[in-house]
Design brief:
Structural class: alpha/beta
Strand order of the largest sheet: 2-3-4-1-5
Mean pLDDT: 86
Order of helices and strands: HHHEHEHEHHEHHEHEHHEEHHHHHHHH
Low-confidence stretches: none
Largest sheet: 5 strands, parallel
């Protein structure tokens, strides 16, 4: 028996829940599809948001023969089999190839589609959950238009579940009732994935007893089949990088509420290493010398989290995340080391000044005898004027004092010592 999500797929673009930025009347995508002239397209977005459904609707109304391949299982011979039907009576209206999970096709397999796509003998609609600009061969990508499918909102999921319940009622002759609390939980727990929501609905409907001609899906039933939020997360995918990026940027932006939210998403996915690593990076990069004591504090919190493990690890990490988010910020040392490394990588360097070298004798050809190193602690305030950078970059400045209280105090001290005031 087909899964509920398959049996209840929308049959028209108007029935599709969500993706209004593409499917609403007047949008470029919708006008193009309604014109009947189907271009080569790549649908990019998370699973369960309507990519396959929309492709199927387009194919059904195009007059072309639809072929479906999946990048996880299809081979080059499968592609050749599809292409062999070009110009035959069975494909007199043209061929529309729907290629799901194109990111799993290697370069050679993707290249095998180039000629027919360019000539127009095959119309390609490909879908991927990964960023196509990283995973799709450039020559093929340049011949397609990329459309991003976004995660569905809880409201989109609710509408889809209501539609599914109505169609189930009509098909079985037994009304399906979902109270608002159960519907809301079902929608929230799906994590933006309609397929997940309909799968949970199907499980609950199967288990629900018929009373007075109605199957009532209670909140208790829904919580049993959808106990854990289906949060989108893949440690190797775009979602991972988006979450850790938002996590660090929220701390950098001094928003503890957002930082805690993204920390919760990382921990809910069990990604303790990323939560700890980005927290340490942010303490060093974004707080830095504005509050240098924060580095050992955050390190202690990270050590505690790793010792405790989840779920208790959330407590020291939450302490540290709030501390980082609410601390003064400075990236002066971060900018300084980046500038220094850029010089080194570009070859802007030179011999170590003689007074700093780790040798205490000179060859016969030395123009000036003696190391002439000045030991800073032998001078007032433990400082003496001396050249430390190589001659080629002797005047280079990498570090500039930040405008926070801590660095400005250090700046005032050294201005006083070096008589720069």
């Amino acid at each position: 028996m087909e899964p509920l999500a398959q049996r209840l797929r929308p049959r028209t673009l108007d029935e599709v829940c969500g993706q209004r930025h593409l499917l609403a009347p007047g949008q470029v995508f919708r006008r193009t599809i309604d014109s009947g002239k189907i271009p080569n397209m790549i649908f990019y977005g998370p699973s369960g948001v309507g990519k396959t459904t929309v492709a199927g609707i387009i194919a059904a109304n195009s007059g072309m023969r639809l072929y479906k391949l999946n990048g996880t299982t299809a081979s080059t011979s499968d592609i050749k089999s599809v292409l062999s039907d070009i110009g035959t009576l069975s494909a007199a209206g043209g061929i529309l190839l729907y290629l799901d999970e194109i990111q799993y096709f290697n370069k050679r397999q993707q290249q095998s589609l180039l000629e027919c796509v360019e000539q127009g003998t095959v119309t390609l609609i490909a879908s991927t959950t990964e960023n196509p600009y990283f995973y799709v061969y450039n020559a093929l990508l340049s011949r397609c238009t990329v459309f991003e499918f976004k995660s569905l909102t809880a409201q989109d999921i609710e509408q889809g579940v209501r539609n599914a319940a109505q169609r189930l009622s009509e098909a079985d002759g037994i009304a399906v009732s979902i109270p608002p609390d159960a519907l809301s939980y079902l929608a929230q727990s799906a994590g933006g994935d309609m397929r997940k929501a309909l799968g949970n609905l199907e499980f609950a409907v199967t288990a629900a007893p018929v009373e007075n001609g109605t199957r009532t899906i209670t909140l208790d039933m829904v919580t049993q089949v959808a106990q854990r939020t289906a949060m989108r997360y893949d440690k190797l995918g775009d979602d991972h990088y988006d979450i850790v990026s938002a996590y660090q940027k929220s701390m950098r932006g001094s928003d503890p509420d957002a930082a805690l939210h993204y920390l919760a998403r990382l921990l809910e996915a069990g990604d303790l290493p990323s939560a700890c690593r980005r927290l340490m990076v942010c303490a060093c990069e974004d707080v830095g010398l504005a509050y240098p004591q924060i580095i050992p504090i955050v390190k202690a919190a990270v050590d505690a989290a790793n010792m405790l493990g989840l779920p208790e690890a959330r407590i020291p990490l939450a302490d540290a995340v709030v501390l980082v988010a609410t601390s003064p910020k400075s990236n002066s040392a971060y900018k300084g080391i980046n500038a220094a490394m850029a010089d080194v990588q570009a070859g802007r360097s030179g011999p170590i000044p003689r007074q700093l070298q780790n040798k205490h004798y000179d060859g016969e050809d030395a123009a000036v005898k003696g190391q002439n190193y000045k030991y800073a602690h032998d001078y007032p305030h433990h400082w003496v004027e001396q050249q430390y950078l190589p001659d080629a970059i002797r005047d280079r400045k990498y570090y500039t004092f930040g405008d926070n209280k801590n660095e400005q105090a250090a700046a005032a001290y050294w201005r006083r010592i070096k008589d720069e005031e």
